[in-house]
Amino acid sequence: MPELPEVEVVRAGLEPAIVGARITSVQVLDPRSLKRHNALRGDFVGMLTGATVLSAERRGKFMWFPLDTGDALVTHLGMSGQVLLRAVDGAPDRHLRIQLMVSHPVHGELAINFVDQRIFGSMAVDELIQQQIGKPGSPSRTVPSQAAHIALDPLDADFDDDAFVGALRKKSTGVKRALLDQNLISGIGNIYADESLWASRLHGEKPGDALSLAKARELLAEVRSVLTKALAEGGTSFDAQYVNVNGASGYFSHSLNAYGQQGKPCARCGTELRRVTFMNRGSHFCPRCQRR
DNA sequence: CCTCACACCTGGGTGC
DNA sequence: TGCACCCAGGTGTGAG
Q1: Each residue of A146-184: pLDDT tens digit?
Q2: Among positive and negative, which fits the CA dihedral A15, A17, A20, A25?
Q3: Structure pTM?
Q4: A66 lies in which domain range?
Q5: Are residues A70 and A39 in the same domain?
Q6: What pLDDT shows up at residue A254?
Q7: Is residue A291 part of a domain?
């Protein structure tokens, strides 16, 4: 269940090993992991083989790696995806779906293993497009076409606070659904949505258009705080040895106040936290602090 | 355009 | 021990 902090930890961990590397060979062990690859533009293996990686980028939960061919390798971890850096002669990983062999000028030969139990994640080669997004006056950006509809994340310097707050306060739908809407604000998943709602004392089913301006701003501030804290913890617990990059290492459960904490006392008021099913997924909240 | 239900997936856990 | 079932949830799609 990687969300923004976990994906960013993976991106940052991959960056030193993958930027400047040349892809020498590609093996697709399960074509279902290519569901976001548009084969009409070309063959996944053929478009990657021989290409050199220029940088490591992220927007929300999408990562991408621009190539010297002009396209980008796009990666989404979905629910259970991991990108593991391995020695070329390493033991095979369980649920390995795609393997890239790369040659790096400093680190030499490496295997990049895309591992994904549930196959909600994917790899793809996609075209990069130019896009105007974010606060008025923000510079134009390059983004894979398949991620063009994804909003900036709230840790991005060009994130438009006023536009988000305004749009949120026009939505009749519940505020949790709005937080999970990647077209409105990206990077938040079920865990950090529940954490942000708990921190701002909001019930997830409270309609967005019922929020005061101040409350909507407070929610955005709490979202930032929760994500920043999780990112900092992920950064510190992250093994500096890049060959151990492991996308599953996230979930800084010791700092969770709501998610998975049903039955435990609320850290604020002591009331027993509850879990209900909402939007086909678990929602965790304090029935006293977070009134509908 | 907006809202929302649902399909897509696997394997760990539970109940019988 | 085995088997059926439930559950975890990010994203894209299509219905209304």
Answers
A1: 999 999 999 999 999 999 999 999 999 999 999 999 999
A2: negative
A3: 0.92
A4: 4-130
A5: yes
A6: 56
A7: no
